[in-house]
Amino acid sequence: MKAIKNSLHIAYQYLKYHKIRTVILIVALSIIIFVPFLLDMVVQESQSRLNARAESTPLILGEKGSSLDLAINSLYFIAKRPGDITMADIDLIDDTELAYAIPLYTRFSAGKHTIVGTTIDYVDLRKLSLSGGRMFTILGEAVIGSKVADELNLTVGDTLISSPENLFDLAGQYPLQMKIVGVLASSGTSDDEVIITDIATTWAMTGMFHGHKDLAKTEDKSVIIKREKGSVVANAKLKTYTVITQDNLKSFHFHGSQTTFPATSAIVVPEDAKSKTILLGRYQEHPENMQLIQPKMVVQELILSILRIKRTLDTIIITVSVSTLMTIALVFLLSIRLREKEIKTIFRLGCSRMATSGFIAAEMLIIAVTSIILAGVLFMLTWSQSDMLIKQLIS
Amino acid sequence: MIKLSKIKFEYKQSSFRLEFDSLRAESKKAVALIGPSGCGKTTLMSLIAGILPPQAGEIAIKNTHINQLSDSKRRLFRIQNIGFVFQDFALLEYLNLYENILHPYRINSALTLDASVKKRANDLAEKVGISKRLKNYPGQTSVGEQQRCAIARALLNEPSIILADEPTGNLDPQNKKAILDILIRYVKEYEATLVVATHDYELLDFLDETIDFKTLGNHESDKKQSTHSLSIS
Q1: Mean pLDDT of A303-317
Q2: Domain range spanning residue A35?
Q3: What is the 3-state secondary structure (H, E, C) of A99-157?
Q4: Which of A151, A324, B119, B158 is surrounded by the fewest CB atoms within 10 Å?
Q5: How confident is the model at residue B39 (pLDDT cuts 50, 70, 90)?
Q6: Is A33 among the domain residues?
Q7: Residues A142, A382: Cα–Cα separation, whole Å
Q8: Same-domain pairing of A70 and A214
Q9: For residue A195, is it within any domain?
Q10: Do B78 and A350 touch (CB under 8 A)?
């Protein structure tokens, strides 16, 4: 015990004196410990999250195109947004009576958080619960995910304004102020990072659904371009409401048929397995440029791709690790040669020549333990940002 | 007390041979080994220390016949009974002066490093005049300070034998005198034996006896008569 303590002491003094060499060795070793662990954990966690989310989402309806984009956008509200479908397309699903459809409209955002326009069925499907407040009941109300609440420091009663898609598109965008009526309890899914509202509220952001003063009753003639039988044409001076309240709610109205209004996709929940099979069959060769996908299958393909990439990365990491370890071994071998004089001195003083091996072993131990601790700290720090890493990996 | 008799030693791949009948150095004595380079001074000290075993003969230190001990027991004996002062000091660059003094206690568990040893290290540092430099590394100190540190290290385990190879070789006259004073005072106080290998004839006046390798056995000085018989070929 005394010998081990002394060896560790001498090794520590040696490492302390050769600070730069020690730091380089520790950092190099930490990286080759930390990176494979991180990669493994990120892949495992991604796999598990992808599977969990996909398994709880039976089918997704969307425009034909990349099934991966459709699945990832509908499950995680990230990646490229597929082309819009219409509410009529979604109604067709309901009309089959084989399933019900939950529309999702993810065009808008507030800052970096996506605004998910949907129906209350989405909340039920995802089994989302509230940590405070209540669910949205009227237009202009929204509930926010737990991370949105934390990051933007928002709570029930606060308001949130949707971001314009393009700063210069002044006429085409209707930034809307939404009232936060509830905060969702953390679910550990992408729902924590979004704002959920009624799909009509997101339509209000497109301008298709809006509210303004009653032109028939207005006395301000400067806003009227012309009055015709049954219609009034107003100019840009007419103030469109940017917030939906109980007072102005009645003035909100749709322009055009609601069936033509857009959605990004729809989650389709079949009545049973047979209904699911029938629906998938019907949409396999859909003439209307639509696709009905099974997110689980799409995600499996994505996981396989991720695993293929991981295998390649593993090979690279193993090669780099072996090379680094050999370099470290070389550093120690050279160190033994450089310490020949020390070895000779301690032998003459009365110590075994092999004792120097003990000092070098103690050095290796200190470096290895410190590297493991540093790798652990790096791992913890990186893991706290795992959501971001997983998002990047998925998208 | 050191007693060597009928010693025969030669290196395997060298023509160097050291052979002598007897050599005796008493306690409380400081003995000089003089002679030209390569004459065998360092070899003789290595034999005394048990670093090199002789091919024949007896080496006794106090009552221990060290040539009869195994290598590990010789090392144990060495670290407990012998203090070394090397010509190049052999301080470790990565240890500060204080850690260098304590170093023998860290490399062999036969010596126990406790508070009393640490106090003794501090006292020795005070005695040799480096107490204010203990946190400095050898590279940050002067040659004289390094030499003093080497002496403090050699004396820390209170050895009965001190083997010093050119201990004053790199020092100015003032430091040389100071170092010798410290060593000789120790020899008297602790009843130890000091063996100094040197080329410096000025040192001889400060030492009790001289063994001259060149005259093969007999060296006479004004004050002392050596009693050793050496033959080297």
Answers
A1: 89
A2: 2-49+302-394
A3: EEEEEEECCCEECCEEEEEECHHHHHHCCCCEEEECCCCCCCEEEECHHHHHHHCCCCC
A4: B119
A5: confident
A6: yes
A7: 32
A8: yes
A9: yes
A10: yes
**What Rg do the C-alpha atoms of chain B give, in angstroms?**
17
Spell out which residues of chain B touch residue A348, defining contact as CB-CB under 8 Å.
46, 49, 51, 78, 84, 86, 90
Task: Show the CA angle centred on residue A357, arms to residues A354 and A360, nearest 5°.
Answer: 155
What residue ranges define each of the domains in chain B, with the CATH number in brackets? Answer: 26-203 (3.40.50.300)
Q: Are residues A133 and A168 in the same domain?
A: yes
| Cβ atoms A6, A14 nearer than 8 A | no
**Residues B108, A10: C-beta atoms closer than 8 Å:** no
Same domain? For A164 and A228 the reply is yes
Amino acid at position B83, single letter: G
Task: State the total domains in chain A.
Answer: 2
**Domain co-membership, A261 together with A369:** no
Residues B107, A10: C-beta atoms closer than 8 Å:
yes
The DSSP bridge partners found for residue B85 are B164
Claim to verify: residue A252 and residue A306 sit in the same structural domain: no
What ipTM is given for this predicted complex?
A: 0.83
Question: CA-CA distance, A62 to A71, in Å (whole number)?
Answer: 9
| DSSP H or E run through B134 | none
Average pLDDT, chain A: 85
- Distance to chain B for A338, nearest Cα, Å: 12
| CA B84 – CA B165 distance, rounded (Å) | 8
Task: Kindly report, residue by residue over A234-289, the tens digit of the pLDDT.
Answer: 555 556 666 777 777 777 777 777 788 899 999 999 999 999 999 998 888 766 68
Q: By CA distance, what is B76's nearest residue in A?
A: A350
Q: Is residue A350, in this structure, part of any structural domain at all?
A: yes
Pairwise CA distance, residues A269 & A265, whole Å: 13
Residue A232 has pLDDT above 70, yes or no: no
Asked if A345 and A294 sit in the same domain, the reply is no
In this structure, the answer to whether residues A132 and A178 fall within a common structural domain is yes
Whether residue A171 sits in one domain with residue A35: no
Q: Describe chain A by its helix, strand, coil percentages, rounded to 5.
A: 55, 20, 30
- Host H or E run for residue B20: strand B17-25
Residues 355-374 of A with CB under 8 A from B: 355
Query: What is the mean predicted confidence (pLDDT) over A47-52?
Result: 85
Residue A54 lies in a domain: no
